[in-house]
Amino acid sequence: MKSVATAAAAPGQGTAGAGSTAQGVLTPAVWLRQPRPQALWIPVLIGSGLLWLFAQLDGGRLAYQLVSRAGLPLERAAFGAFNWYAWQLVWVAGLWLGFHQHRGEGTGGSRRWLRHPAIAVAAVATCVVFLLWRHRVGGLLAQVGAASPLVDKWRLGPLRVLDCIALGRVLNHTLLPALRWLPVKVLELLGRNSLQVFCAHIPACVLGDALAGPNAAPPDTLAQAMLLALMLGVMLSVAWRAEMVNRQNASLAGRSPVA
After folding, report:
1. What are the residue boundaries of the structural domains of the chain, listed by start?
2. Distance between CA atoms of residues 54 and 42, nearest Å
3. Is the pLDDT of residue 259 over 80?
4. Dist CA 37 CA 42 (whole Å)
5. Which of 169, 160, 168, 163 has the alpha carbon at shortest distance from 113?
6. Cβ partners under 8 Å of residue 120, min gap 6
7. Where is 127: in which H helix or E strand?
8. Among 17-26, 52-61, 105-114, which is the least confidently predicted range?
9. CA-based diameter of the chain, in Å?
10. Tens digit of pLDDT for each residue in 171-187?
């Protein structure tokens, strides 16, 4: 397995890239499982933001060139299309939000401003503007092309970050509460065990790529349906197993010791 230092030097293009990225960005999750992790979030978030800025300045290419000149044989095309330095921001921000929500800190007075009507209107307006821009309606942001660094998908450009924040606000405070009546137990099961499910799907994707080969023809509709059913089955099995383990651990923790 490539070391984290070697892999991080070439953020570039594939499924293998997603797996290595997960190894790197999971480090804060382990570090923050300390007795008093609140104070640790500040350097983690600052570091994540600086890495994102590093990606916007094309620092990943410079890092790759420096490592290549040092004699390490790295193939840039093997590290996926997503820039790891930029997209780690999404993972770290998700960990931070989940941490505070789990501790019940997401609804305190310090977060009430997020529920202000002006914030809701601004978020909806931002989503609408970007939707119209994406489909070239009304000439909005016509000067911003799809290849502009401001909306770059692979490096997570600034305007794309703004759109993600607005979408998160709209979905979390508007759409999700409206859908609570739906029977989504299966989705809840996957959500409660999302880390295990995510880690389980990576080797499955790598195996599928290896079996298909680089020049394989796209599968037909039936093969795609079978592949999707198999993948969902694997993820549900992993989630169910993790749920059983969590319940067993909770049961053992609540059982009083025998004298």
Report:
1. 1-106, 112-182, 183-259
2. 18
3. no
4. 10
5. 169
6. 169, 170, 173, 174
7. helix 117-134
8. 17-26
9. 76
10. 888 777 777 777 778 88
